Amino acid sequence: SSVTLSQQHARALFAVRTKAFGVDAGERRGEGARRAREEGTMDGGNGAILYCFMGRGRTVWADHQASSSLQQPQKTASQMLAKLSKEGKYTFQLSDSRTSFCLVDHLGVVFGCVASSAQLTSTAAMVFLGDLQEQFYCQFGAQEVQTCAENTTQFRRFSLTMKKAMEIAYSGGSAKIANVKKQIEDTRIIMSENIDKVLERGERLEDVMDKSEQMRDTADAFRKKGRELRRKMWWQNTKMKLIIALVVVVLILLLFFGFCRGISCIKK
């Protein structure tokens, strides 16, 4: 019963961890999903990434808007840029149907996007922003980024690259995101199998311990019975020797009194 409880506890813990990794992040439904579908239908976009941007400080260096339903996107981007300076990954819930994902690199450059909450997971968004960051540093050097003014316009032409990246992300590039999801699912399955194997190994160890205890008890019982058997055999041998000695004595006495007729042999 303790093993069954530990299995249930391990699996429940694993389910919580896999949800934290974003495996079940697509479970949001309802009004957010309906709004996202309406946005994708009205605007002719892909319905997932509505707007992407990059910059530093309060200045948007380059951006591209795929959905006209998003009002004043540059203002929203500037507000997020002002909050971000430390390297890392960030998520902002803008509304029930929209989420903003941001990636800040070691130079303080922010790559971000506004997307449909129901149609884009955090993992997929970070993969997209990582590709965007890689393409940016392929076009512009790190030294150029470090020395530029905050309100520079020299990176404005990167907007065309962002547009192409958004088009690729959910046409041919969707295979990459699907592949990432598949890898996460495969990892979850492997981890689940490993947990089952560990628990099964624990059951086997408990069986071995039970069997060793049984063998120890059997050995103790055998030792006790052996000791009792030795005592019994010794007593039987002693009794046999005593009986033989008594018989010999009786025979000697019979012979003595038979041939000598008792005391007469002694008197002679």
TrEMBL record:
Alphabetized UniProt keyword annotations:
Coiled coil, Membrane, Protein transport, Transmembrane, Transmembrane helix, Transport
Per the database record, which ranges form the V-SNARE coiled-coil homology domain? 176-236
DNA repair among keywords: no
Report the transmembrane regions from the record.
240-259
Q: What Pfam family is a match, any one?
A: Synaptobrevin
Cellular compartments per GO CC: cytoplasm; endomembrane system; membrane
Is Ubl conjugation a UniProt keyword of this protein? no
Q: Which SUPFAM superfamilies match?
A: SNARE fusion complex, SNARE-like
Kindly list the places in or outside the cell where this protein is found, as annotated in its UniProt entry: Endomembrane system
- What's the main place this protein lives? membrane
Its domain of life reads Eukaryota
Q: Which is a GO BP term held by this UniProt record?
A: protein transport
How does this chain sit within the bilayer?
Single-pass type IV membrane protein
Family (UniProt): Belongs to the synaptobrevin family.
Protein name, as recorded: V-SNARE coiled-coil homology domain-containing protein
- What is the scientific name of the source organism? Phaeocystis cordata
